[in-house]
Amino acid sequence: MYDSTCYIAQEIAEKIQERNRCQRNGENSTKLNVTIRSLLQNLKEKIDQLKDLLLRSISTRQITQLEGDRRQNLVDDLLTRQRQLQASYKNDGTEPDVIRSSLMAGGMTRGVINPWLLEETEETSRLGFDELKQHQQRIIQEQDAGLDALASVLSRQKQMGQEIGNELEEQNEIIDDLTNLVANTDDKLRSQTRRVKMVDKKSTSCGMLVVIVLLLIAIAVVAVWPTH
């Protein structure tokens, strides 16, 4: 809605510029005046709707206070522009440069605090109405081309992110399989270690038994051996 409201304000500025040109050339500007009055009324209604929507969004906490302040500045700029356009329509002393600046505002970046009060450059000050409009259209086309390029970059980054995510999932599966293999190997190693200890213990017991038997045999032999 804000974008459409800005477009209406820009259209009003163009119509006022065209109306003034017709008046200078002695042409009939009645239809243009009717159109401008209708657009001014539409602009007022749009701004009122924006104010109501903004108040509702802030009161219901649909947006943060910082975002609310930013949007309030934009609405205030539209209100200022509405008064300027109304004054320009009534021809009560408003400078023509204000209208020209509004024509250029539509092609500028939106990050500025007051997009309606930008100063006109030396390049555009020498342009007529039609040339100024063409210049503005070129700016919009350049911005569209830049947005298309940005969209392409973001699309590639998204694709790369998805590929990285898939690779991470595969690596996680490999790590899980390796962890299970290590755990199984560790269990088998512990089991084999216990068996070796049991065999070693049995071997030691058998060896002691053999020694004892041999000693008993030796004692028996000595006991029965004839003494001279």
Written overview of the protein:
By secondary structure, the chain is mostly helical. The protein has a domain at 2-118. The protein contains six helices and no strands. It has helices at residues 2-24, 30-59, 65-90, 96-105, 122-125, 129-224. The chain is rod-shaped and about 160 Å long. The N and C termini lie far apart (133 Å).
- The residue fraction in helices comes out at over 70%
Biggest pleated-sheet summary: none
**Multimerization state:** single chain
Per DSSP, the total helix count is 6
Note the overall shape.
Answer: rod-shaped
Order of helices and strands: HHHHHH
**Chain-averaged pLDDT:** 78
Low-confidence stretches: 92-98, 103-118
In total, the number of strands is 0
Going by helix content, strand content and strand pairing, the class is mainly alpha
End-to-end distance: 133 Å
Tell me the fraction of residues in β-strands, as a range.
under 5%
CA radius of gyration: 45 Å
